[in-house]
Amino acid sequence: MKTTIYYFTGTVNSLAAAKKIAALLGDCELVPIASLKNKRGDITPTADRVGIICPVYDAGLPRIVADCSGRLNLSRAGYTFAIVTLGRIGVSALHQMNGILFNKQSKRLDAAFAVPMPGNFPPVGKIASVEKQETILKAADARLTEIAGLIDLGIAVPPGFSLVSALMKCITYGSVSRNGHGMYTQFSVSDTCTSCGTCAKVCPVGNITLVNKQPSWQHH
């Protein structure tokens, strides 16, 4: 069965999940959501199965993923699923996606999953030790294998519910979603920068360029 997976990744966790699911399902096309951000109109996949894989930002969807979800036309899809990767909490992002899809076409996800990954947002917690990260990644790998089996069988899996996640989304998500595009003004470069250019190469939306060998942010 042909599968199309739309993914967004900020720090590679979600890309790793997308690649794992694609390899297990077979006959799968991976489409970066960032490649669609400047295209107009609806996005209409023709695959039998359609998935969305992305991280959780402030207990909700990254703005670029929310926008893409609102443009998806799933009328040809027989089975739809979503996987969010998260450091701690964030199943509310799956309910947000369900709401977007229902408002668009009276359709909800057939299956929705959350997969814990190593947290990588220092303002809300310390980065885990290498040993702890390896433990988390091993568990994530097993969970993704289980998820791929459920998807392959077409099993319906409703999103879980977390009151803490729902409350956090109510408190923080709106402000971050509205103002996130301007947060680059708070970024700075110290004299420890080696001008390697890695940040510019890996930025999923091409928001960083090197100017005089220093990172410069591009307003998007």
Question: Explain this structure to me?
Answer:
The protein is α/β, with parallel strands linked by helices. The chain has 2 domains: 3-166, Flavodoxin domain (Rossmann fold, 3-Layer(aba) Sandwich), CATH 3.40.50.360; 187-220, no CATH class. The protein has 6 helices and 7 strands, in the order E-H-E-E-H-E-H-E-H-H-H-E-E. The strands form 2 sheets. A 5-stranded parallel sheet has the order 2-1-3-4-5, covered by helices on one side. Strands 6-7 form a two-stranded antiparallel sheet. Strand 4 (79-86), helix 3 and strand 5 (111-116) form a beta-alpha-beta unit. Helix 1 (13-25) packs parallel to helix 4 (130-153). The chain is globular. The model has no long low-confidence stretch (mean pLDDT 90).
Which descriptors would you attach to this protein?
220 residues, alpha/beta, Rossmann fold, 2 domains
